[in-house]
Specification:
By secondary structure, this protein is an alpha+beta fold. It is built from twelve helices and five strands. InterPro entries: Cro/C1-type_HTH, Lambda_DNA-bd_dom_sf, MLTR_LBD.
Amino acid sequence: MDTTQELAAFLRTRRERLDPDDFGLPARRRSRRTPGLRREEVAELAGVSTDYVVRLEQGRGLRPSADVVEALSRALRLAPDERAYLFDLARHRPRNADKPATTVAPPLARLVADLSPLPAMLLNHRYDILAWNDEIARLLLDFDTLPPSQRNSMWLCLMHPETREFYVDRERVVREGIAHLRAAWAAHPEDQALTDLIAEFTAGDEEFARLWAEGDVRVNGRGRKVMRHPEVGVVAVDFETLMPLQDPNLRLVIYRAADEESQAALDRLCPPS
């Protein structure tokens, strides 16, 4: 994975998805055979030369300044997560000097347990599951039965035979997970374990390879998931993701039942004490 080539591909795909009609371009300039804006139009909107945009999109090793990255973000109308991703690729966001978290401080582990009866778990930026309570283990999988290398929520979704078809809207869940991993990879280029994990998924799962190639970038902190549980049937949960101030590389994920039927299912699965 080469950040220079990824920056080039990212700029191309974002340029090509734009609708020229949204920019009020003169009619004489709108006759085109290729999708999206032309390079010279992006260059004009960003206030840079067309040759510079060409060289960026061809991956010639240029490193745009922070001002140019900001101008390109505006010209391409990037969403906030995409803008952050572009800054990461250009190496203009501050780096966290700490190594990726692989353990959890005891107070955080106790917090996860104390969140019962709400299912909860702690993840790092590459989706490694570092701590969990009994409720989420009963809802998803008994993580104690897995070797540490398999305690990764994306690995379980893609590779584990019991959880591959666990989510009703599987493609959306995988797509959102991939969009997060892409942002995490750009923010943590030094994390070889994450790079190796993405390579493993790309080589071993056609769906992952196809969706990864689409280049989506998004950090999704809340949403809904609908699951097919083998014991209690369909369960819909709303999730919220929080970042501990003392450990910003960790993610605390908390589930809540999305409706009365799902709450009843969770109560059968984890009877209130």
